[in-house]
Amino acid sequence: MKSASTFLLFLLFLLFCTPLSVSAQEQTFQEWLAELRAEASARGISDATLLALDELEAPLERVLELDNSQPEFVQTFSRYLSLRITPLQISRGQDLLQQHGVLLEEVRRRYGVQPHYLVSFWAVESNYGRATGGFSVLQALATLAFDPRRADFFRRELLTALQIIDEGHIAPANMSGSWAGAMGQLQFLPSVFYSYGVDGDNDGRIDIWNSLPDIFHSAANFLSQSGWRDDERWGREVVLPSGFDYGQTGTRIRKPLQEWREIGITQLNGAPIPVADMQASLVLPAGAAGPAFLAYDNFRTTMAYNPSTFYALTVGHLADRYTGGPPIQRMPVNEQAMSVADVTELQELLNAAGFDSGAPDGRVGSQTRGAIRAYQQSLNLPMDGYASGQLLESLRNK
Length: 398
Prior knowledge:
The chain is mainly α. Among the domains are: about 235-320, Lysozyme, CATH 1.10.530; about 340-395, Orthogonal Bundle (Muramoyl-pentapeptide Carboxypeptidase, domain 1). About 50% of the residues lie in helices and about 5% in strands. The chain is built from 18 helices and eight strands. The chain has a four-stranded antiparallel sheet. A two-stranded antiparallel ribbon has the order 1-8. Helix 7 (about 100-110) runs parallel beside helix 12 (about 210-225), helix 9 runs antiparallel to helix 10 (about 150-165) and helix 11 (about 190-195) crosses helix 12 (about 210-225). The longest helix is centred in the middle third of the chain and has 16 residues, at about 150-165. The protein is globular, with a radius of gyration of 23 Å. About 40% of the residues are buried.
């Protein structure tokens, strides 16, 4: 049920695709740890806190295995959504909204983040606190910081984690999280914790592992500072008019709601979309054959937490379901996943046909989507930029 984590984890996800360095680590792990200890001490970290480094005897192989693994298949929107939004998950969230209503309303008044959205983030990040990761954050970060590929980034995170411990927020043994160092029920990296964490229960420390006031205040603080609007929803599912120009889709294109209304986009019941002084993008998570969503500013703020359209749509839709909203109406039927090998072949064939998708890497990024759109345009197909098996077969037969 857990997402990749905060917005910084998406950067890490992109970097994880870098091939493993073949150069040998010049230092032993203990030599490297001694240097880290000296740097931390020079930054004012106490000797008592640095004793926690004595427990780190060697890099954790499981962390490196997870770091270097690639999924066999690129997850479809249908699959992503079905793993995170179930009748039980909706019911559980509704119960928790009632159970913690007083606290959530307090947080709403202070930060302007509506309770049903906040609980939705909580659900998608850690399954309401049930799935926070079972790794020692210090051990995971030390393993990744010792590896030469992204040493500087993870070294900074590790030093920040030590500072968090030194300030008394959490004991080293209780600082648990994901294999990539994302912590607690919010899955904050140490740097995000340090920038946005809030002592919501006023006990003198920030505990995003156990204290719901700290958890909700911290998440709302991050969202508020990232631009969340308490007088707006995240977006809505819509119906596109016949002959729609699919080249207008994607988060890079923003138009006033009035313009989308004039194009002929309607609500699911056929009524015109409401008009307000708001900008929106049109998002198609499963291509032209799947649902269409107008995504507003709060959708973009959700992507500051994790810049994945699947993630942002899931958070928004789950929040709607808590308050009685209907299921997504136009979900694709039998949506087929593309394997990493399939996407790599697709990129290679696009490049060979003169449509530049960049270096083939098995990932559908903006350049690959642009190449797909150009190829679709050449065949007078809907320019949805969607990588599919049908598109791959078309290129194979070209």
